[in-house]
Amino acid sequence: MRLRVTTDQPWDVAADVLVIPIVGEPVFEGPLGEIDRRASGELKALAAFGELRPKRFTSSIAASGGVRAARLLTISAGPTNDIDRELAVRLGSAALHRLAGRHAASLAVWLEPLAGVDGGAELVAGLVARGVVEGMFDPKTIYVDDVPTAPPAIEELVLIAPAGTDAAAATKAAERGVIMGEGANLARSLANRSANDVSPEVLAEEAYTLARKHGLWIDVIGPDKATELGMGMFMAVGRGSDNPPRMIVMRSGKKGELDAAGRHLAIIGKGVCFDSGGISLKPPERMEEMKMDKTGACTVIAAIATVARLAPGTPLLAVAPAVENMPGPHSSRPGDMVKALNGKWVDIINTDAEGRLILGDAMTYAERLGATHLVDVATLTGAVSRALGDLVTGAFGTDPAWTGEVLAAGARAGERYWQLPLVDEYLTEMESWYGDVVNTGGAEGGLVKSGLFLREFVTKPWVHLDIAGTAYYRKAKPWAARGASGASHATLVELALAGAAPA
User: What domains does the chain contain, in order, with CATH numbers?
Assistant: First the structure.
């Protein structure tokens, strides 16, 4: 996609579509009034008709009259005080989804109405460009060649910045946004692919391809090596399927190398390519969604590739334990005792609490490889979606300073998180008759107990991001199709880039 930033007037920019953000109640004065005048009063007429409304993400398409763009597309941004980074991204995506099924090769976006976002027009250019790229994604195109309802594939994006904007800085931010959007779409594409398409071995092959493309070191640990190393929890889940497990390890920079922030950051993602629940079988309703249980792994694989594109050589470790959780003659049973990589004995009382098992061994292994700070991303609990819905990711952390850094990266990325407590008193409900800990402590407080279990396998500053609610949408949003959302990809990239060496 060609990219251009201009400070021309919006009515002077040639494009198939001019996107006009409407903030608050539309007031047809100044530049918006001039656009309307040149469009022969079409926007004002749509507002009077009730088609152009201030409700967020409502939209209208209008004839352009004397405006150089062929069509005008308004996207309402809601109240002025609510304009933020998340909204800037989603407005870019919403524009593409409004154009689904239409024919447009070039898109111009007027940035001035959004320039009040903290960071100014240069930052907004990057956020909107990212949103436009993410908005072009439609999961149906993964398997179907011709999808008439898909958003158009934009060949040229023109960002119209306010006068006085540093065009070079805005262009650099927009180019960064495009790469961020492409990374999110990579994570979404991998996550959306079906279980008969992406097994643990196939996910490892995809990681190999990305590693070769972006100059990353990679190691993939198979069942024999994992058993030899002592990854008892990982193998307790992975051995139940005919598709053998893979522990995928990718690295940018040298082994143990510290980044500019003094960290060897590790990002760990849950990669359950299909989760039947194992012997503790899930009910059939919505089980088809369990191909999405690999989203955490897809996210960290895409994130390290994105960081490699934006800041090659930045020290970063990505670990993606990939398994299938299936019932079978070699599956773990409720009551089985397994020894974790860190030496703790775990009493498996529910085989459907499998994600925490593979993550535990993966985090221990990341520390053995030199990680000083860890973040794991996982579709771990249904409880988080019941608590926070599909727009807010739950976060747990052991170190306040490190947790603050992760949440600050989320704020820069325009992603929402809510920190939850690790309540030590609940540990008594997770005591095992036979070992150190059980892998689930019952329904009450289950979300907190999932974090407490994971904490048993880290000794360094650590944050757990539960994306079970935000990883995918069950129905389309104005800014996204059904399916994987790309949640937390941008946060992980921002976090890693905070340790990139100065250009």
Answer: 2-187 (3.40.220.10), 193-497 (3.40.630.10)
